Amino acid sequence: MTHAETPLVDLRCEAHTYPDGTVGMHDVEFSVFPGEIVALVGGNGAGKSTLLEHLNATLVPDDGELVVGGTPISEDNKTRARKEVGFVFQDADTQLVAPTVLDDVMFGLQNYGVPTDEAKQRAREALETVEAGHLEDRIPHYLSGGEKRLVGLAGVLVLEPSVVVLDEPLAGLDPERSRLVAERVQKIHADGISVVLSTHDLDFAAEVADRVCVMTDGNVVGGGTPSEVFYDDALLAEANLHPPSAVRVARDAGLASAQPVTEAELVSLLTEVDNLDATRTPAPDGRGRD
Ligand SMILES: Nc1ncnc2c1ncn2[C@@H]1O[C@H](COP(=O)(O)OP(=O)(O)OP(=O)(O)O)[C@@H](O)[C@H]1O
């Protein structure tokens, strides 16, 4: 895939070594461009969270560089990376710190010195964006997993980042909540924010992503559009991944040449094939003859 634009985030990481000596990631070059949703996929321990946490300088490479909005990030200007790249953690509890949801969403703004009235108004707007306005007086700790995820997302959106990073946004959510979070991801993308997320759910990746990057053993081993990645058997095998269900059904139905990756694309193809068959198969009264 080629990108004419300047990346919003540009990471080069020769290696990231954790304090116990484990190499979490190595030889990675990863960029985020305006207007895209990128899904990172890979098995447990492949390095997805490690990569994501480098995008807002939560982690820094042993050797390498992070450039955000054209500015190289160092110890002195890490706050710039934190502001431009909002991070929604997998464990929402680590992110929710205040006594009420509204206070929580206001927290970041107040840290940046925004006056209370303005912070309150912007926090309410951010909660509305994720349709969680009704939760503003609740105690964050007692929210359901999906509600926490949405409030965490509001707390990030309120700071108006250019990129939102979500680590395993569907982890632990039921299908209904997963759908809700997937819709919100598409909505913030439609509002002009780039999104990078990690997921084990390849159906979800196929549904929302413009670009999919495959990780294994701390390295990005391939990437491309969902069709390019999910029909690349060798790449999926290397990362020990199974293709999304639409890809498996398309193969069984002999429709792989059209490379559908989502359920909707598959249904539309199957409908086309059905219609074609109906025009070819003569009905007993002779209707439907070619
Ligand atoms: N704090 C840490 N200290 C030591 N090793 C770590 C730490 N965090 C992650 N690792 C190691 O780094 C490697 C990459 O882990 P990472 O969490 O980035 O993978 P992941 O793809 O996000 O995995 P999962 O899908 O299981 O969440 C693994 O070998 C992991 O054990």
CATH superfamily membership of the largest domain, which one? P-loop containing nucleotide triphosphate hydrolases
Order of helices and strands: EEEHEEHEHHHEHEHEEHHHH
Query: What small ligands are held by the chains?
Result: adenosine-5'-triphosphate
Quaternary structure of the protein: single chain
Shape: globular
Keywords: ATP-binding, Cell membrane, Membrane, Nucleotide-binding, Translocase, Transport
GO cellular component, one term: ATP-binding cassette (ABC) transporter complex
Protein name: Cobalt ABC transporter
Family: Belongs to the ABC transporter superfamily.
Strands, helices and their partners?
Elements: E1 9-17, E2 23-32, E3 37-41, H1 48-54, E4 63-68, E5 71-72, H2 78-84, E6 85-88, H3 101-111, H4 116-129, H5 145-157, E7 163-167, H6 175-190, E8 194-198, H7 202-208, E9 211-216, E10 219-224, H8 226-230, H9 233-238, H10 245-252, H11 263-280
Parallel strand pairs: 3-8, 3-9, 6-7, 7-8
Antiparallel strand pairs: 1-2, 1-4, 4-5, 9-10
Bound molecules: adenosine-5'-triphosphate (ATP).
Adenosine-5'-triphosphate binds next to α1.
Function: Probably part of an ABC transporter complex. Responsible for energy coupling to the transport system.
GO molecular function: ATP binding; ATP hydrolysis activity; ATPase-coupled transmembrane transporter activity
Domain ABC transporter: 6-242
